[in-house]
Amino acid sequence: MPLAKATHKATLDVVANPRTEKHITPMQEEFSRLYVCEDISQTEAAVRAGYSKKSAHAMASQLLNGKNYPHVVARVRELRTELSHKYEVTFEGHVKKLAEIRDGAMQNGNYAAAVAAEKSRGQAAGLYIDRKEILHGKIDQMNRDEVMREIKKLQEEYPALALVANGNVVDAEVVEPEKVR
Questions:
Q1: pTM score, two decimals?
Q2: Which end of the chain is more exposed for a tag (fewer CB within 10 A), N or C?
Q3: What is the phi-psi region of residue 27: left when phi exceeds 0, alpha when psi lies from -120 to 50, beta otherwise?
Q4: In the chain, how many domains are there?
Q5: How far apart are CA 41 and CA 50, in angstroms?
Q6: Are residues 32 and 71 in the same domain?
Q7: Residues 108, 166: one domain?
Q8: pLDDT tens digits for range 24-47
Q9: DSSP 15
């Protein structure tokens, strides 16, 4: 199996001098970083970056407006791209990580976790197909004739069922066994 490529860096690039490198101020850089990396609103990002609480909402809207501050919008886009590469999921990386989990579980004697990891690897590789069928109505709600019609229909649709069930098909007539004398 080929090794997964190292496609991303472990951390985001820190801009030493945002004013010259990205044409934005340090506060705008901090706003961009907070807005992208933290799970907060744009107003909260502006406040944490050092903007006044009174004008934070308006300032955040302006900063994210490409017409007024195109360099800030570009920096936000750049940081989002870095994050998406950092947390990117690839088939090779996913299967490799599942193999590591499986091996660790095996070494610790946790066989259930090892089997689950191996099954997940197989699912990721497409070895298992999960099929679900949603049925409406229950056999309990059907009368005998309806059940027999469904059995016949299934046997016609799937001839292998008829071959397996040959001799086991329930006839509509019930014959009482003869008494032995």
A1: 0.47
A2: C
A3: alpha
A4: 3
A5: 15
A6: yes
A7: no
A8: 888 999 999 999 888 899 999 999
A9: P
pLDDT at 5: 46
On whether residue 142 sits in a domain, the answer given is: yes
Question: Same structural domain for residues 22 and 67?
Answer: yes
pLDDT of residue 144: 87
Per residue in 126-174, pLDDT (tens digit) is: 777 777 777 666 777 788 888 888 888 888 888 777 776 665 555 545 5
96 and 77 within one domain? no
CA 99 to CA 136: how far, in whole Å? 40
Please name the amino acid found at residue 58: A
CB 8 within 8 A of CB 22: no
Q: What is the CATH number of the domain that holds 76?
A: 1.10.10
Q: Alpha carbon 142 to chain centroid distance?
A: 39
168, 160 Cβ separation under 8 angstroms: no
Structural domain of 141: 137-170
Q: CB of 22 within 8 A of CB of 13?
A: no
In the chain, how long is the greatest CA-to-CA distance? 109
pLDDT in the model for residue 45: 94
Contact 51, 27 (CB under 8 A): yes
